[in-house]
Design a protein that fits this description.
Order of helices and strands: HHHHHHHH
Helix content: over 70%
Number of helices: 8
Radius of gyration: 17 Å
Distance between the termini: 17 Å
Structural class: mainly alpha
Number of strands: 0
Strand content: under 5%
Number of domains: 1
Length: 226
């Protein structure tokens, strides 16, 4: 039953994501993103509520999904007013912090001492700092909010790496891949908005975003922390 539920969810999720990405490229149907984009996280929330409530850390991951949904909704209005962008940024900031806390809690609050993991975590810190420096000239009044945001998503990546050898291998790799896809998606957002506009940026952003949420959810399911 659980396998069938996951397969059904996967089919529905992929369809919603593809429809959202397709309408982004067809001007006359662009307004349909107002429907499809919120449905991406709604499908995850429904699946989680129906199937994962008995899992340890469910409340953390479910709340993170809720704030991701809020972020999606707010960002739909960013073309109307910059306050929508700030609200979306704040929602995803909370979501990333909750993901990071789940990652840390799933290791029983322990920290990796493996040199290779510490080296990769340091690399994430350097890359996040370098990317913030690249964006900084274009940030203006958003320099402090964006600093908090990039710090949170960097922390999420660091704590995803921290799960190495502390959870089962499948859960680790799915969650890590999801966290990295999230970092990539947000990096494209930042570059496109504050450095230089990119062709088809929204397609790349949504593709990596959809993959990220799916992989994090799959990693949680495979963690069997119940």
């Amino acid at each position: 039953m659980e396998v069938n539920n996951w397969k059904k969810f996967t089919g529905i999720y992929i369809l919603i994501c593809l429809l959202d990405i397709v309408v982004l490229n067809i001007a006359e149907y662009a307004t349909l993103e107002l429907l499809f984009k919120p449905l991406i996280m709604i499908s995850i929330l429904v699946y989680s509520f129906k199937n994962l409530r008995s899992y340890t850390f469910y409340n953390w991951i479910f709340t993170a999904f809720v704030f991701s949904w809020l972020g999606d909704v707010f960002l739909l209005g960013q073309g109307i007013n910059d306050l929508f962008f700030v609200a979306g940024l704040a929602s995803f900031l909370i979501s990333h912090i909750l993901y990071a806390l789940y990652f840390y809690k799933s290791t029983n609050h322990t920290w990796s001492k493996k040199p290779s993991i510490l080296g990769l975590q340091f690399t994430i810190c350097v890359l996040v700092a370098a990317f913030y420096s690249l964006m900084y000239p274009g940030l203006g009044d958003l320099s402090i909010p964006v600093l908090f945001y990039v710090s949170a998503i960097g922390l999420m990546g660091i704590l995803a790496l921290n799960r190495f050898n502390k959870v089962n291998a499948k859960s680790f790799w799915f969650v890590l891949a999801g966290a990295l896809c999230f970092i990539l998606s947000d990096s494209i957002i930042g570059y496109n908005k504050f450095v230089n506009p990119l062709s088809f940026a929204h397609v790349y952003i949504m593709t990596f975003y959809c993959v990220a949420q799916y992989l994090i959810l799959r990693g949680f399911v495979l963690g069997r922390e119940n």
